[in-house]
Design brief:
By secondary structure, this protein is of the alpha+beta class. Among the domains are: 71-249; 282-375, no CATH class. It has 12 helices and 16 strands. A hairpin with a 2-residue loop joins β9 (159-166) and β10 (169-176). 39% of the residues are buried.
Length: 397
């Protein structure tokens, strides 16, 4: 039996106990919400209460992770949160970090099917080319436009959950007026299922506008408080002070652009450690598998060097890549091949008596780094299998 609150037509609330099997039928004829034991709080700036909807409560109770998620507090997306998610990045650069943090740990519920997922990793992309060179394309292909821009009619103001299919597969995206958020790690909550890792989400698809309109979004209260702190910090340069490389998005192009190194990838608290984030070209060197001199590790180490040089410069001086560091990694390769050729091509960029090359604006260096990124695609897929197992272990505990 589960405690519920029922609201009549006269706005009178009655409390009752109800069996789990009667939750859904009851909710069709009367306003019902789950009553959860919660601690009293001084204030709640999200502008709404934290009672779970009966459909979310039912989905969580049906799944294997109910004990882990029912003790957290969630707020359904509302006007205040939508306004928060639609502030301009040009005027408020810190909002790229705040918005990403807000969405980490969010629960997405498809009310038409009862499916629910938790967002364990999310990365955000600005809408405009002057803000983010990795922005979503607005080009029309084959007479149709695939965009996450909110439509005219939405459930939440200027916030639009949708699925978009491209060459990689089906991507689950949350779109606002100022950015789109790509979900790269998620877990079904209404049934036993393997975690999904990477840019595609196949077990939870919002392929029609009707499904998008029937989708509810629930923000984790701890994420809201963390995001609020970031939003008022005009000096914010990252989401957290640790694991900077893991906050970089899963990109494989434009290493000569400053926006490639924006640290706006965020994680749900249970999956915020070194074993549970999806691997990228920036972090594969830290995968605890294989030999220290494995080619994939050396490739990723070089890209790490590039990223760290940009992060450390913080736009105060042009970031550079030292020839000595590139040569040191090159010397660890045990055989000639495609990887060696890329290293040699990079080393060949250094002119006589000049020991560094610029990173930002260096198209030639970018072309070689993109070759490394393509070579790392297969090892990253393999590494993410270990992430999938790690998340399953964490969520089962």
């Amino acid at each position: 039996m589960h405690p519920i609150a029922m609201t009549t037509e006269n706005d009178v609330e009655e409390n009752a106990l109800i069996h789990e099997s009667h939750l859904q039928p009851c909710s069709q004829t009367i306003a019902v919400s789950a009553v959860l034991p919660t601690k009293r709080r001084k204030h709640d700036n999200t502008g709404t209460n934290t009672a779970l909807s009966v459909q979310l409560y039912s989905a969580l109770k049906a799944g294997p992770h109910s004990q882990q998620f029912l003790h957290h507090q969630y707020t359904e997306m509302n006007d205040n949160l939508c306004t928060f998610l639609n502030q301009g990045w040009s005027e408020h650069p810190q909002m790229r970090y705040a918005c990403s943090r807000l969405l980490a740990g969010m629960i997405v519920l498809d009310t038409s099917s009862g499916k629910a997922i938790v967002v364990n990793c999310v990365e955000v992309y600005g809408r405009r080319c002057t803000v983010d060179s990795h922005r979503e394309s607005f080009r029309t292909r084959r007479g149709t436009s695939s965009s996450s821009l909110p439509s005219e009619i939405t459930k939440y103001p200027h916030v639009w959950p949708t699925s978009i299919r491209d060459g990689d597969g089906t991507k689950l995206i949350l779109g606002t007026k100022t950015f789109n958020a790509l979900i790269t790690s998620s877990l079904r909550l209404d049934k036993s299922s393997d975690p999904e890792i990477g840019p595609t989400t196949s077990s939870f698809c919002l392929e029609t506008s009707v499904k998008s309109l029937n989708t509810q979004l629930f923000v984790k209260d701890s994420a809201w408080h963390a995001a609020s702190a970031l939003a008022i910090n005009e000096n914010a340069k990252a989401i957290s002070s640790y694991d900077n490389l893991f906050q970089l998005r899963q990109l494989r192009t434009r290493f000569h652009h400053q926006s490639t190194y924006i640290r706006c990838r965020s994680f749900n608290e249970p999956t915020d450690d070194l074993t549970t984030p999806p691997y990228t070209v920036f972090t594969l060197a830290d995968w605890d598998n294989g030999g220290d001199d494995a080619e994939y590790r050396l490739d990723s180490q070089l890209i790490q060097l590039v990223a760290l040089a940009v992060i450390r410069s913080e736009e105060t001086r042009p970031p550079t890549l030292a020839k000595q560091k590139v040569s040191a990694i090159r010397s660890k390769l045990k055989k000639d091949g495609a990887v060696c050729k890329v290293f040699d091509s990079i080393i060949g960029q250094y002119v006589t008596n000049v020991e560094t090359v610029h990173i930002i604006g260096n198209r030639i260096l970018n072309e070689e780094l993109q070759k490394f990124a393509n070579l790392l695609a297969s090892p990253i897929t393999k590494a993410n299998n270990s992430v999938r197992r790690a998340i399953a272990t964490v969520m089962a505990s």
